[in-house]
Amino acid sequence: MSLVIRLSLVSLLAAFSGPALAQQSAPASPTAAAPAATAASAQDEVEEVIVTGTVAKGRTVLDSPVPIDLISAEDLARSGVVSDELGQAIAAIAPSFNFPRQSNSGTSDHVRAGQLRGLSPDQLLVLVNGKRRHTSAIVNSETKIGRGTAAVDLNTIPLSAVGKVEILRDGAGAQYGSDAVAGVINVLLDTDPSRTDIEVTFGEHITHMGATDQHITDGETFTLAASTGFVLPNDGFLRVGIDVENRNKTNRAGFDEIPFFEDAANGYLAGRRNYTMGDPNSEAYGAWFNGEAHVGEIVVYGFGTFSNRETTGGAAFFRYPVGFANVLSVYPDGYRPRTRADDQDFSFTAGAEWELGAFAADTSVSYGRDELEFGVNESLNPSLGAASPTRFDSGAYEFDQLTANLDLTRDFDVSAFAGPLTLLAGVEYRRETYQTRRGDLASYQAGPLAGAPDFLAIGAQAGPGLTPADEVDLQREVVGIYLDVAAEVSPRLLIDLAGRYEHYSDFGGEATGKLSAAFDVTEAITLRGAVSNSFRAPGIQQDGFADTSTSFGSNSTLVRTRTLRVNDPISRSLGARDLDPETSFNASLGVTAQLADFSASLDVFHVAVDDRITLSERFFDDGVNTFFVDFVSTLPGGADVQSVRFFTNAVDTRTQGVDVVVSYDHELFGGGFGLDLSFSYAHTEVTHYAGTPTELTALYSNFRLVGVEETNTLETAAPKWKTVVTADWQNDSWSLLGRLSAFASARRVFNFGGGFEPSQRYGAELQFDLEGEYQITQNVAVSLGVANLFDNYPDRSIPDITFFGNLPYDILSPIGINGRYLYSRLTLSF
Question: What is the pLDDT of residues 86-135, one digit of tens each?
């Protein structure tokens, strides 16, 4: 905690050292790293009312009892992201949000998950227009950050649909329900009925890759977004839009040095780029609507999104000509499988607001569904020999969620209070279902060459299919009741008290509560703080997920790993237990200030999570002890199993940190100038490990549920701090933006078996982005921009980690591995 305190004091002194130089004009924008168009618009942003974090009416970012980031649609449009990715756009602006890219990570190459304040992706709740968003059907089983989680896929929300984003950086389980351990992202859709927008963007990576000393142009990306609005009678509105994207793959693989464990006959492939490391090809389109109509005294509203994304060419390891994973008659020079995914996502909400006696009533029904079909091209099931197909359907995952709410709100006049007491009471019903479907037979079967004397690999390479035993069809129901009361008990003091009880049909009930307050020390300075407890029930996907993947084993060989449900006989024999909900305690304390053109906020936080759910270590023959496979093979379903893992409540963690946002806005050279600094620091440590089950220690005393890799994932794999500094200047014709992002160092640790656990600390990184926009006419604007102007790459990985030169960079680097990206944008607004 000492480092957090020191950082807090330094930031606080910095925040209050500059106001003496400020000029008397409009207040500053509170938006994290947001541009300032003019002094007037900056004042509008300061005074914009937030809808997340408290039921108290009329609160803004600076007088909210909990920390809120407010990100406008303009901020998102100018984030410099490679494609139509809402998650990446938020990460470019909000330092507390991390959105890592993956490569060579199975389905995680196609679906990305974000994390807030260094916590797990599934500990972040996402709302759209204040309504709970469904999660992805995919369990990110092969990622480093967020391994074993099923999170909301933010990239299924079209970027053009977003009016603004509010990020609540505080535990909010009592207010919004399970999953809000780290906080809440509330995506508010565009409501303007009088505007038509058409935006066309083209960009590409133009970079020099130092690992191979090559000049590369790739990742060509085209996006088209069009939206329009309609005015409906009685102040109603309807806004609709479509998005289209086409993005080519990138590749940052190195020159192959040929693994020592392969036959010498493969040597002629040395010096080639046999592997792929980067983004897949992507074709996507989406549609959305947001509307409201007034029918008598009733307000009827509805909104929805649709997304279809087809990605191909996800990175996979090269299979050498001579080896257990190839059939020479099919691929005489080896092959590199290309994973593919077809992801369809749909969400719809309908609701109504009306007066119910003295209460304002809001009732709604939301339905969301995500389905991903996964497969692999240019692959092989070697155990089938020359008869093997080369294209496989590896299986499908489906998740849907039905949510119904009834909220009642009323203001009470309390004579002893300075303002009204606002009460919100509600009830929620939620039904979740999760299904998986097997792959085609050839994708998982053990063919005639699986046994002696050939022992060729089983299943589709890079995409082993789901087996009949992996299929599952689960359903659960959740009922919650909640109460939130906020009151201005004095002219300076706001208190907000919330409580919730939720009952899960498969995990029982849990109560949560939250107390938050804001106290105005002066007209310019506000103190705020909150304490709460939250819980997160195991995702239904975590309860039902099972699959087969390929991972590194001893001597860097590829090992088939089975992820098993906790109730599988094999996992039970290794000590697996039914999953328990995670529980957490959150506390935060902050201060905000607004002085003339200057505003600042500083918030220190503490989050303790007990019974945190992770995937266990992979248990396999490690080259030293070779009895594990023999033991598993005697169990039901244990034939052909090389490695096993399962979900477990394995650790307790503690996360502590500080967030700082400082903004200055002023008139300069006939335009509006804005300078914004945002800083986020979060440090997570494991405070307790669950004991190793006796079933495991009886096999081998060194087996542990969680080892060096998962500990590294939780504690040090992501940078502890991030700073974003944005300078922006605008007048009626020009808009110029520069953004500097700085990231702390990170450490990666791997367990390749046999006691081989290489690690590397990757140094701190800087990224500089520029964008300029010229307003040609009132309706037409053109923009040019560059992300990662100086073409910075992460440190090269040490030889022990590069898999013989093929994977030269750390895929989790926050600056990415693709290098410089240049783009242009044409915007038409009517």
Answer: 999 999 999 999 987 777 666 777 888 889 998 999 999 999 999 999 99
Contact 630, 45 (CB under 8 A): no
* Token couple for 40: 């007037």
The answer to whether 470 and 547 have CB atoms below 8 angstroms apart is: yes
Write out the H or E segment, with its range, that includes residue 475: strand 472-488
Dump pLDDT digits (tens) for 67-77: 999 999 989 98
The predicted model gives 760-783 an average pLDDT of: 96
Residue type, 724: V
pLDDT digits (tens, 9 = 90+) for 592-607: 999 989 999 999 999 9
pLDDT digits (tens, 9 = 90+) for 243-294: 999 999 999 999 999 876 667 789 999 999 999 999 999 999 999 999 999 9
The tally of CA atoms less than 13 A away on the side-chain side of residue 344 is: 4
For the chain, what is the total number of helices (H) and then of strands (E)?
Answer: 10, 34
Torsions phi, psi for 509 (to 5 deg): -110, 160
Give the Cα separation of 535 and 580 in Å (integer).
10
Does the structure show a pLDDT above 80 at 356?
Answer: yes
Q: What is the DSSP string of 777-808?
A: SSSEEEEEEEESTT---PPBPPTTTTTTTT--
User: CB-based contacts of 527: which residues, under 8 Å, 6+ apart?
Assistant: 518, 519, 521, 589, 590, 591
- Element at 15 (helix H, strand E): helix 2-15
Confidence of residue 161 (pLDDT cuts 50, 70, 90): very high
Phi, psi of 156 (to 5 degrees): -85, -5
Q: Among residues 38, 93, 75, 63, which one has the least CA distance to residue 665?
A: 38
Question: Rounded to whole angstroms, what are the CA distances from 815 to 220, 293, 372, 587?
Answer: 18, 44, 28, 31
Nearest Cα to 243, choosing from 213, 198, 207?
A: 198
Q: Which of 816, 810, 818, 805 is nearest to 273 (CA)?
A: 805
Total residues belonging to the chain:
830
Neighbours of 17 (CB within 10 A): 9
Place of tokens 């058409």: 198
pTM of this prediction? 0.91
Provide, rounded to the nearest whole percent, the portion of the chain with pLDDT above 70: 92
Burial class from Cβ neighbours inside 10 Å (0-12, 13-18, 19+) for residue 152 reads buried
Q: Which residues of 360-393 are buried (b: 16+ CB within 10 A; e: fewer)?
A: ebbbbebbbbbbbbbbbbebbbbbbbeebebbbb
User: Which has the minimum average pLDDT: 311-315, 350-354, 390-394?
Assistant: 311-315
Residue scoring higher pLDDT (619 or 621): 619
Assess contact for 90 and 185: CB atoms under 8 A.
Answer: yes
pLDDT in tens, 408-419: 999 999 988 989
Phi and psi at 710, nearest 5°, equal -70, -35
Work out the widest C-alpha separation in the chain, in whole angstroms. Answer: 89
Q: Which of 473, 614, 638 is nearest to 542 (CA)?
A: 614
DSSP-derived pairing of the beta strands 183-189 and 124-128 = parallel
Q: Tell me: pLDDT of 37 over 60.
A: no
* Assigned token pair, 721: 């701090």
Task: Provide the 3-class DSSP secondary structure of residue 532.
Answer: strand
Asked if residue 547 lies in contact with residue 185, where contact means CB atoms within 8 angstroms, the answer is no
Distance CA 161, CA 483 (A): 31
Taking the C-alpha atoms of residue 688 and residue 308, their distance in angstroms, rounded to an integer, is 42
682 forms beta bridges with 657
Q: How far apart are CA 528 and CA 495, in angstroms?
A: 10
Cα–Cα nearest to 650, from 674, 614, 621: 614
**CB contact at 8 A, 269 and 275:** no
Characterize the bridge pairing of strands 196-209 and 821-829.
antiparallel
Exposed/middle/buried for residue 545 (C-beta within 10 Å: 0-12, 13-18, 19+): buried
For the record, the structure tokens of 537 come out as: 């029930």
The neighbouring-strand residues paired with 430 are 403, 478
Task: Give the pLDDT of residue 99.
Answer: 87
